[in-house]
Design brief:
By secondary structure, this protein is an alpha/beta fold. The protein is built from 5 helices and 6 strands; from the N terminus they run H-H-E-H-E-E-E-H-E-H-E.
Length: 148
């Protein structure tokens, strides 16, 4: 069950957004990296993998999270490419999830599901967790291309 202080943020959001007409985001997604272990035909991100700036730095990700918190976002979704491939020096996705869980009532990861789900969002006892799988690619012939 979600702690009451985190749950209370949602009615407060509704009041700020609907009654006071504040333009605040409910959900924000961070595309951490263009890197991916797949090469799906419809994905525009894998074409950018290998570029000089093909992923966010730790500092950029934390700054973005802090800004989104200040703007009022309640739900953060880490995406990519494949976010489980994101790493900056000694930091990886697990570190970002831990940081985000301390600042947002809901944290989610969108993944292609090809990596083991050994992430804090799955194994934590807190209720602010979600894992989203992209299964569209697996359902269409020739849509999903696994590089050699």
């Amino acid at each position: 069950m979600m702690p009451i202080d985190r749950l209370a943020q949602f009615p407060a959001f509704f009041i700020r957004r609907k009654i006071f007409r504040q333009k605040i985001p409910l959900l924000a997604s961070l595309k951490l990296t263009y890197r991916c272990n797949l090469a799906c035909a419809a994905c525009p991100l894998n074409r950018r993998a290998g570029e000089e700036s093909d992923q966010m730095s730790w500092t950029s990700a934390i700054t973005s999270l802090d800004t989104l918190k200040r703007l009022g976002a309640l739900i953060i979704v880490f995406e990519g490419g494949e976010p489980l491939m994101w790493q900056d020096g000694r930091y990886n996705l697990y570190d970002l999830i831990d940081y985000a869980k301390r600042h947002f009532p809901r944290v989610a990861v969108t993944t292609n599901g090809t990596f083991p789900l050994n992430v804090p969002a799955v194994h934590s006892r807190t209720s602010n967790k979600a894992i989203n799988f992209g299964l569209k690619a697996a359902s269409r012939p020739n849509f999903l291309k696994i590089p050699n």
